[in-house]
Structure formats: C-alpha cells, structure tokens
Write a structure and sequence with these properties.
Two copies of one chain form a homodimer. Chain A is an alpha/beta fold and 417 residues long. Chain A contains twelve helices and eleven strands.
Chain lengths: 417, 417
C-alpha cells in the first residue's frame, strides 16, 4: 500500500461480532504495514478529531477483540446531513483526514453508514483530497441490499433460536399447573428477519414457536387470540415470538399504543407485555413474557461460527480493497450454494447499497402469516451454524478485552458543529 | 437394594440442570438394578396415577437428559394441604405407591417439596406402608436452608453475570449518542441471590452493574435516581440490575403498582419498564431495558459446570441414600473450602429444610445497598465457574432430548381429588 493511514470507524447499533470485523481490519493492516487508526464513536470521532492509534495495542489484545462483543472504539447514531445542507461538515471530515494523512476510510455499519461513506468518497475529489472510502457491512437487522446476509445477524438469529428452544422446554414442563402462554419479543422495527430466525427453533408441527408475529403482517388481535387458544387446546401451551415492530390495523406500533406505567408515565415500548396482557385478559390464561433487548445482539457467548467467519472476512476484504486502490465499494457476502452452504466475498458499489433496504420476501412467511416457510429455512439455517465461543476465565466469565484506546494528538481547532 | 421400585418426581419452577439430576437418578438406579419410575407433572402425577416407566428410555436418551433444560417428566406448582386438612390425599398417594410397589420416593424441588416429602415419610408409617422419602434440592432462588447452594442457581447466576457483562459492552459503546441507562430485571421475588450474582460481572469500580436493586432493600426512588445521575455523569452510562421483588416504601411490589397497558388492562409485572420510565421521565435520559424471564433459568447453553456437577451429585446421592434405607433426608451441598473451592454431599434431615427459607445475609450487601461485598463474591464466584455446554447439531442448535415418556398402566380408579 502507498503511504498514508487507514481510518476505521463503527456506526449504529453494535453486534456480537462487529469487533471481529475490527480485529480483522487491524490485523490485515498490520500485515500490509499500514497504520490503522480508529475513530472514537464513529463518524463523530472524525468530526471531533478523536482518533485512536491502534498500533498501541498488543497483538493479543487485537486477537481478543475477535471474541469481544460491543463496539471496541465506540459507535454512534448520527446521520450526516446532505452535502448541500451542511457542506462545512464534509469539509471538516476531509480536513481531519488531511491533517492525519488518512488515505483510506472504512465505515462499518448499515444503510446510513454506506451512504456516509459514499458521500465522502465523492466529496474528496471535489475538495481535492484523495480519500478512498470502503463500506463494511454490519447490522443485526439483516436489511442491507445486495449482500446475502449481514454480519451480526447470524449471531442474533442463533441467540433467538436457541433461547426459544430452551424456554419452550421450560414452558412445556410447567404448563399443566402454571404458565400456558409465553411471549418473547425480539428486535426488528421494520423487517422480521430476527423474528423469522426464531422459527428455526422448531422442526416439527407443534414445536415452539407456535406463532411468530412479523412487522410485515398487520397485527389482528382476534386472529392472534384465536390461534393462541387453539394452540393451547391442542398442544397444552403456546410460545409466541413477536417482533417489536408489529403494528395494529390503525398503523400504530402495538408497543406504543398509549401504555402508562406504575408511575403514571407513558411506558417505554414493549410488545411482549402488551400481548401478554391481552392474552391474560381475553383468554384467562397464565402468561409470562420476555424481552431480551440488548442481550440478544451482544450475546457473543452464543455467536454463530458462520456469522463470525463472515464478520472477519468482510474486515479483511475491506482492507484489501483499500490496498488495491478501490473506492466507494463494500465487501458483500455472496451465497454460492445452499447445500452444502458456501459463500464468498465480492465487492459491490456503495451506490447500490446506500439508503436501500432489503425486505423479507413474502414467500418466506407462511400463508397465515404466523410462521416461516421451507424457503426461509433454507436461507436462514446456514447462518446460525457452528459455534465460536469466547475463551472463559477461571472465574467462569468470558474473557472480553478492553483496549487501551490511546488517543492520537489533535492537530486542528475544536469542531464547532 | 430390596425389591420394589423407586419413583422420582420434579416439582416447582424448572432449571437448566434439573434434568441433570434426573439423569443421575435414573443412571444410578440402573447401576443398582432398581426400576425407576417418574411421575408426570410432579406430585400431581402420583395423585393421578400418571407414572412413566424410565426403563423404556435408551441409555443415550438418559445421557442426553444431562444437558437438556426444562423438566423432562413435567413439573407442577401444587402444594399439598396438611394431613389434617386432607388426609384422603395422602392416603391416595400411599395407595398409588402400594399399587405400583413404590418403595422409594425422590422429590426434586424446593422448600414446599421438602415439606411434601417429609409428610409422606411420616404418613407411610401411620398407614402401614413402608415408603422411604428423599428430598432432592433444586431451585434457582437459592433459598433452601442448610445446603450451601441449590442446584439450578449457579447456572442462572452465570447466565446473569455473562449477560450483564455483554450488554454493558454494548451500552458503553453506544452511550455517547444513544442509550445511557440500561435496566435488566432478574428473578427473585423474596431474596436477591440472582440479583447479587449480576455483581460478578464487574471487577473494578465503574464496571457494570453500577446499581443492583435487591428485594432485601426498600426501593427509594430519589436515592436511586440520584445514583443513576451520578453514575452517568462519572462513567458516561449506567447499568442497573433489578430484582423483580423490589418493593416501595408502602410495601408494594414496584412491578405491580397499578400499571396499565396498551389495551387498558392492568399490566403484568415488570420492574424494568417501570424503572426505565422513571429514569426517562425524571432524568431525561435515553433508557433501554431487558427482562429475560424464563430465558434465564432455562439457558442450559451457558450452564455452570459447578452447578451441573452438583446437580448430578445430588441425584446420585439421593438414590444411594434410598439404597441405604434412609428416610426423610436430603443430600445437601457442603462447602469445605473457598479457595480452592471444594464441596461434598451430606445427608440432612428433611425437617431441618422443609418450609424454611435461607435469606441473603446483610453482610453480602454493600452499606449503600446497591452492590455486593467481597464476602458475597467469595460465596458466589465458585458457583458460576466452569462451562458445561450441550452438544450442538450440524444445524447450529443444541441437541436437546425429548423422552418417550412411556406410561405405566394404571391399576387404580381415577383420582377424584
């Protein structure tokens, strides 16, 4: 690679394996003799000129990043305005790149981040600074265009399927005298990919989950209750997996439909408690519910090996693309075979990915809208295969690393954005 | 062992390792050439004469029970009345024992189950039928008297500590622009043992969890909010672990203080959403919350090896006590050394355990009531040590077993109780 430094940043909601991508980026840079900086808290770290020198980390620390969840350099939820609306912001970014001789920028995130990387890849030319921008895919939502799947998704899918299988055994054994209906809420505001992955927990008719509620299907309380009643009558108990994004026929999120809490305040979301109350009230059945929230996307201890391998592969490929002088591309996962499952990494132009959203095909959902089809299983199943457990210490806890995150000295005036 | 059969039953809330105890019971019986029956759904299966012939299961199936969560024979929440209040019920139990030549009854549960086993051990003599009753400890609540800890607790403790460590990394990496406060609710209506185990996730000051709310300490909203604010100011974010059993100064469960939901119904419990709303309302901070519910006690995939070993050991010991002709005893765990951690199994009279409750010592909680002390760490730490993962199939899911559960032919008229 030419002279200059590579800057890596993490963006948006973190995952169980985004640090595996980060580790692959740093390790590949080290092999290529390129200095890798990281931005603290994503693109904000660039704006604020808060850069981290990853060369100060030991090889062991970077190795340990592979099995550490969360975002080691900090991430952010921050969407840049358009270039027309705030050109100064882009000039600041290029200014920071220039001040620190950053020649490659790798942005690890979802749709928005691909868009940011794309814009930066163009503005560099306008402003006369040669910066190559590579998007690196990551999102538990699995909604990036082009790529077959998104690093981060396979692990949350595995967590979800395993958790459903486990709690179903619990519910089944107690149903005679205790809980008959169990509702588990999963992430997915716009697309039901995570909810769909719960379907992998069951293999036969009457296996849990008995109902999956997708954001793609309008929530119909009467139909839902009828199916729960029917399932309890036939199986003795019922496990429901509900996506946080389900909406009622009026188009309102079920989780936000006017709940108030113990202190009389509007309640923070929660589809699961709302559904649980509905079942208890209308069917007079004992209900329990769970809402794992961040636990599901940070559960590195139950990460999918497939997902882990892909997270590493996109990190490595991104640096290689940079080394080859490519610009405005993203390494994506291409599935070359279902059985045996095979995949490879390919470069795709960022403008084919930025700001697009991959929806779940209707063919993945059963006709009644409460389950997944064989086509969905074929797609989902390989993504949760294999285990990639972290090492455990003698204290029984996973050995996650905290980096030193040594700051690079600032060279510019403070950002006033 | 003499002629006759042994009957094993599971009672109360199931755990990640109660089936490891069941497997040890069945395997030890096989070695001792004793026929082991199991009751379907605990003591109710005895009353209903719904017995399962475990000799119909393959050695591989029983072996797989060791790593399968839930209760393989079904459990129940059912408290027998006193002998004076319902003598007929006890006569029925003895009648079923007599009809099937049951000479040993092993009841795997908590305080109530120990009480049931104790009563049965006495009534046999009164009714002229020689039945030996052995209690077998199990409860995620860790509240059984005498025993140093309870099989089932170590695994939920490990799940809790690992989950807190993982989601803390998530929150830390996003706190700059997103969630600043994360609340995780754990089980424990009367005692804060599970909440305390969350404390193992942190090792240094400012590590998560920053606050633990115990049922032993009255919830003081002002003090809580002040501490959350202080933590966010100092650390940048704050992780709270709250026991479901915390009460306000009026003695009401915080989870039940008049919540209504999206459908206008009284809300099912939920300390976490109540606390989250409080923080959002009073401190204007972005909050997320999680409530893993049954996921925490069925998470066999992250079971503690210590817990697993102890679950096996009590199952084995219970059969051995039966073979020795002992009655009205329970195998309990005795800690013989903290460092290195060592333990052994001893028999204790059931009347020292039945209907008693082990409270968490005040010395386990820090003076401010928001954390655990070094004494608590010494006690808790060994219980989560070691991993005992289940085998995984090629599909990426744990290979849990479903027994055939072949019914024993009934010999008595139906129970009309």
């Amino acid at each position: 690679m030419e002279n200059g430094k590579l800057l890596y940043a993490q963006s948006g909601g973190v995952t169980a394996v985004i640090n595996a991508t980060a580790a692959a980026v740093v390790e590949t840079c080290r092999r290529q003799k390129v200095t890798a900086y990281a931005a603290r808290n994503g693109i904000l770290g660039v704006l604020r000129e808060e850069l981290i020198d990853t060369t100060k980390e030991s090889p062991a620390a970077i190795r340990a990043l592979r099995h550490t969840p969360g975002g080691a350099f900090g991430s952010c939820r921050y969407k840049l305005k358009s270039i027309d609306a705030d050109r100064a912001q882009y000039e600041r970014l290029i200014g920071v790149f220039r001040a620190h001789d950053i020649r490659w920028f790798l942005y690890n995130g979802g749709n928005d981040s691909a868009d940011t990387a794309l814009k930066l890849s163009r503005i560099g030319k306008t402003l006369g600074y040669d910066i190559r921008c590579i998007g690196v895919p990551k999102t538990v939502d699995n909604d990036l265009a082009v790529t077959d799947c998104c690093p981060g998704f396979g692990s949350v899918a595995k967590y979800t399927a395993v958790s459903v299988r486990e709690c179903a055994l619990d519910v089944a054994s107690m149903a005679d005298t205790s809980t008959k209906v169990f509702v588990m809420e999963v992430m997915g505001r716009h697309a039901g990919w995570i909810a769909a992955s719960a379907g992998l927990a069951g293999e036969h008719r009457d296996d849990a989950p008995h109902l999956i509620l997708f954001p793609e299907i309008t929530f119909d309380a009467a139909k839902f209750l009828a199916r729960v009643r029917e399932t309890v009558a036939r199986v003795g108990w019922c496990v429901v997996v509900a996506s946080e994004g389900i909406k009622n026929p009026e188009g309102k999120f079920v989780s936000e439909a006017g709940t108030t809490d113990a202190f009389g305040h509007a309640q923070l979301g929660g589809v699961a408690p709302a559904l649980a109350s509905l079942v208890r009230e209308k069917l007079k059945l004992k209900v329990h519910w769970a809402l794992p929230d961040y636990l599901q996307r940070s559960a590195r201890h139950i990460a999918s090996k497939t997902d882990f391998d892909q997270a590493v592969a996109v990190g490595k490929a991104a640096v290689e693309y940079a080394a080859e002088g490519r610009n405005a591309v993203m390494p994506v996962i291409v599935r070359t075979s279902d059985s045996p499952y095979r995949w490879k990494i390919e470069a795709t132009a960022l403008d084919k990915i930025a700001n697009r959203e991959k929806k779940m095909p209707r063919s993945y959902l059963t006709r009644d809208g409460f389950g997944i089809t064989a086509v969905a299983r074929n797609y989902l199943s390989p993504l949760i295969r294999g285990e990639a457990p972290p090492p455990y210490g003698r204290n029984g806890l996973p050995e996650y690393v905290a980096l030193k995150n040594v700051a690079v000295s600032k060279k510019l005036p403070a950002w006033d954005g």
